[in-house]
Amino acid sequence: MELAPEQCRAARGLLDWTQEHLAVRAGVSRSTIRDFERHRHVLHRGTESLLIRTLQEAGVMLLPPGEHGPGVRIR
Description:
Radius of gyration: 11 Å
CATH architecture: Orthogonal Bundle
Distance between the termini: 18 Å
CATH topology: 434 Repressor (Amino-terminal Domain)
Number of strands: 2
Mean pLDDT: 95
Order of helices and strands: HHHHEE
Strand content: 5-15%
């Protein structure tokens, strides 16, 4: 699964997490998350996997792109 910048922002919103909080939980830099969410760069596969795992472990379901694009949902 690929994580879209919009999904990352929406997932953080559902969890009420800041970029800093996600960065600490995932073990990445805040600037990585900031730049990704602003479409400044694409994530490395390993970093993307860390973010996906962290969000899923926190209870977020990442929905694949469908008719209306990718989405997020709380379990």
